[in-house]
Amino acid sequence: MSLAVTLVAARPEDLPAAIEAVELALQGIDAPASAPDLLGPNAADLVVRSVHRALVRERAEQALTGRTVDVCVQPVEGRRKRLLVADMDSTIIGCECIDELADFAGVKAEVAEITERAMRGELAFEGALRERVGKLKGLALTALQACYDERVRLNPGAEILVKTMAGKGARCVLVSGGFTFFTGRVAKAAGFHADQANTLIEDGAALAGTVGEPILGREAKLAALQAEAAALGLTPADALAIGDGANDLAMIEAAGLGVAYRAKPVVAAQADARVDHADLTAMLYFQGYRAEEFAGA
Hints:
With 297 residues, the chain is α/β, with parallel strands linked by helices.
């Protein structure tokens, strides 16, 4: 089969040496790699004929050790996805909203510790969420908007990723273990078609310290991917799923292209590809988009 080996550098000047290193590493695998196809100033495709996808990925990743360059190895056929399902916190945005809310409540350190353990897969997500939300009891609702205004920012490349895929006909859905107050606003800012998340229970003035049931966690994220794909007449193989924490792992494993973005080790180890250096537009390059196709280009 034809495999696309896509390199995306954090800086354009890092790309030429990375291409040379990977070309050298892939010598002797079935057929030589094609001449580099530049997708943008910091991204290129190498195409190699091989049935040994895992070996190609292993050699490419080894060649890039110590370089600020991300790589994705996948079949050329079907690489442009028709469904995007993305996590929100620390993926599409640069913070964990519950940790920032906890800062407003004066309990950030203890809540952030629980968040970190849950995202590493050391704690069951549902129980950890109930515990953290319980610590927010009595927080004024005005803190939610203040938190959004002061703390929530789209990660670099997020809007370009979503609006480019949407503009090319893909459905884009934000699926979060966080809260609808934030996902609705972030989805609108980034250009998602829809969002799903948990609901904070409140009394009209302050948070009650509880969350709506059932909690949207790992299995619910997988179910959302499956349902969205089925509604479009697609399969999970037609989807790109991105996330960073353990509760994203099931959807990342099920998707045709599952990408770990600045992810915890348990997620990075299982994903089809990792983005540790470049911004979120790497997900477009992985699908074969060229920079001139990006929204706003």
